[in-house]
């Protein structure tokens, strides 16, 4: 991605940590956690790989179509899974955004040039920015604590806590906004 190296490394760390936590959620005893954890781990690690600053490592030109194919396949899986769960529609938009960013980087004239120069990418980037900004705002609002009910269920293990999963989704949404801005 285009942008300062320091912010790129922060995105790499954030996305890799989120992907690692999502891998841990695969071992959860809660089926709902396991259902989306693999998809979210793929997104976290994929975003971490794409966020490595171009000044440090510029992937070979063949890497972008590979990213596109991997996230295209993940998008098809999300489309299939969207039949039963609304959250999978968000995964579908996320994978589409990753395919779009891989394509934009593949057609970028150079590692330091921007792909927006007359190629019609700006409206798509703008639409994705609007979506992910809205997603971040809604996800952040969902993290606002509510008073616990008296005599509620005992606290779940740290890997089964839905607020941690929501915080990971929020951090990936923020990272997606940052990556789209630097596109």
Give the key terms.
183 residues, mainly alpha, 0% strand
Layout of helices and strands:
Layout: H1 5-25, H2 31-51, H3 63-81, H4 87-107, H5 121-142, H6 162-182
Helix pairs in contact: 1-2, 1-6, 2-4, 2-6, 3-4, 5-6
- Termini distance? 6 Å
The total domain count is 1
Please count the helical segments: 6
Provide the residue-averaged pLDDT: 82
Task: Please indicate the percent range of residues in DSSP E strands (runs of 2 or more).
Answer: under 5%
Largest sheet: none
Order of helices and strands: HHHHHH
Q: Could you name the ranges where pLDDT drops below 50 across 5 or more consecutive residues?
A: 111-118
Q: Please give the radius of gyration in angstroms.
A: 17 Å
The count of DSSP E runs of length 2 or more, i.e. the number of strands, is 0
Class per helix and strand makeup: mainly alpha
Query: Per the principal axes of the C-alpha atoms, what is the gross shape?
Result: globular
Q: Multimeric state of these chains?
A: single chain
* Helix amount: 55-70%
What can you see in these coordinates?
The chain has helices spanning 5-25, 31-51, 63-81, 87-107, 121-142, 162-182. It is mainly α and 183 residues long. It has one domain (5-145, 157-182). It contains six helices and no strands.
Short précis:
By secondary structure, this protein is mostly helical. It is built from six helices and no strands. It has helices spanning 5-25, 31-51, 63-81, 87-107, 121-142, 162-182.
